[in-house]
Design goal:
This protein is of the alpha/beta class. The protein is built from 13 helices and 19 strands. The structure holds flavin-adenine dinucleotide. Catalyzes the hydroxylation of L-kynurenine (L-Kyn) to form 3-hydroxy-L-kynurenine (L-3OHKyn). Required for synthesis of quinolinic acid.
Length: 443
């Protein structure tokens, strides 16, 4: 660790930015963390914007490295499986892991962000500038321009790291300078948050599960909160006859939910109000390249690779970026011009892999989870995991309960499916041969 270092600018004090500030400060860097919003520890929470999130092994691994995992997990609610709510009939539980013990954790996004902010602020060398919206960046000189309530201010940094989310201004500046290309693939679906409050001080649904209402063209999920409420997220097309745009009156909203989500209606007394007043968020995949320019400007988290939320991995993946960047700095003896390209090389394929898995999981969650074929497939998968411990591991386990690089997960799962397919085809051929022989003998 060196003692004399130039200041690093981190733009965005969200989840990735705060974690990054902690890791850099531990390496001895002076860090300026710029955030467009006021200090969230003193401000109001935005209405209807992803209140909680599922934290799994990758995110926890990063938090353990800065000694914050225990504090964050103190309020976490473990979810050991999915609770599938059909239109009629009882909900069915499907455990995530073969032993039924492993869980993803529902945590408050705001509490996690605040814990990370407080941890960063307590480290020597970190200064946090709230109400600083990046509006200009010269990638060659490292000069930054911010809009603040007092007017425009400028600053410089030896290295600038954009952790400013899916709509990253840092990425936008690199685009404007012609040193980066990007593609934005928006889904036709948006999301809206609704609330199931506690009943008599208790959870209205089982808090040990992630609840899913799969409805083919739409889907709703619900995660528990420490105050015993649930935050539901409805995913639905943004336009068309069956879409957020199609419910124009309180009666239409009530009718829709009574038809498609009948067990939710008695649990959500503010359904109509939530529906009418909470915003519809957009969903999409952001890809860009390169993730760094001349070892001077880099992108982490959603700024580099926003993904759709259907695997619950966006923040987990952003945290992994930070761990990898720290590792690259180690391996490159803090030579940024080597470390940033290495970081990009190691992370880009992994981000692409989870982006694809997240898109595929949308179809699985909104459509397949309720089908008997899917349930049988899951039972077979768990049976294989029991029979071949450590050798056959489901994609869900590898993504959520390990830190196996995402790209490796995809390759391994393809190999597993191919092996199972080959065995099944062989067994079918043997069976067909046996049946054929038996039929031949009976002639
Ligand atoms: P953000 O969290 O977006 O932080 C960016 C920060 O930069 C913000 O504080 C912002 O104010 C600031 N900023 C933006 N522009 C500027 C600017 N010009 N100047 C200065 N500051 C700026 N992930 C999971 O792991 N598990 C989940 O269960 C999960 N659920 C999700 C559910 C939904 C509905 C959505 C939409 C996402 C979900 N995600 C989940 C994804 C997760 O929220 C993101 O991947 C994660 O927040 C990315 O962190 P980040 O720090 O890169 O970006």
């Amino acid at each position: 660790m060196s003692t004399e270092r130039d200041e690093i600018a981190v733009v965005g004090a969200g989840l990735a930015g705060c974690l990054l500030a902690c890791f850099l400060a531990r390496r001895g860097y002076p860090v300026a963390l710029y955030e467009r919003r006021p200090d969230p520890r003193t401000g109001r929470v935005e209405r209807g914007r992803s209140i909680n999130l599922a934290l799994s092994e990758r995110g926890l691994d990063a938090l353990r490295r800065i000694g914050l995992a225990e504090q964050v997990m103190a309020d976490a609610l473990p979810m050991r499986g999915r609770m599938i709510h059909p239109v009629a009939g009882e909900p069915q539980f499907q455990s995530y892991s073969v032993d039924g013990d492993r869980a993803i954790n529902s945590i408050s996004r705001g509490a996690l962000n605040n814990a990370l902010l407080t941890a960063a602020a307590a480290l020597p060398g970190v200064r946090i500038a709230f109400d600083h919206r990046l509006v200009g960046l010269d990638p060659t000189s490292g000069e930054l321009t911010f809009e603040t309530p007092q007017g425009k201010v400028t600053g410089t940094a030896s290295v600038v790291l954009g952790a400013d989310g899916a709509g990253s201004a840092v990425r936008g500046q690199l685009l404007a300078y012609g040193v980066l290309t990007e593609s934005l693939d928006f889904l036709d679906y948006g999301y809206k948050e609704l609330t199931v409050p506690p009943i008599g001080g208790e959870f209205a649904l089982d808090p040990g599960a992630l609840h899913i209402w799969p409805r083919g063209t739409s889907m709703m999920i619900a995660l528990p909160n420490p105050d015993r409420s649930f935050t539901c997220t409805l995913f639905w097309p943004t336009h068309g006859t069956q879409s957020f745009a199609s419910l124009g009156s309180p009666a239409a909203i009530e009718r829709h939910f009574t038809t498609h989500y009948p067990d939710l209606v008695p649990l959500a007394p503010n359904l109509v109000d939530d529906y009418q007043h909470n915003p519809v968020g957009v969903l999409g995949t952001v890809r860009c390249t390169p993730w760094q320019v001349a070892g001077k400007v880099g992108l982490v988290g959603d700024a580099a690779h926003a993904i759709v939320p259907f695997y619950g991995q966006g923040a987990n993946c952003a945290f992994e970026d930070v761990v990898e960047l720290d590792r690259c700095l180690d391996e490159c003896a803090d030579h940024w011009a080597s470390a940033l390209p290495l970081y990009q090389h190691r992370r880009q394929a992994n981000a692409e892999a989870i982006a694809r898995m997240a898109l595929t999981n949308f179809v699985e969650m909104r459509d397949k989870v309720a089908s008997p074929v899917y349930r049988t497939r899951k039972k077979i998968e768990h049976a294989l995991e029991r029979a071949l411990p450590g050798r056959y591991v489901s994609q869900y386990e590898l993504v959520s309960f390990s830190t196996t690089p995402y790209a490796q997960v995809r390759r391994r799962v393809r190999r597993q499916y191919a092996a199972v397919g080959a065995v099944a085809a062989g067994a079918l051929a043997l069976l067909a041969g046996g049946v054929g022989a038996a039929l031949g003998r009976r002639r």
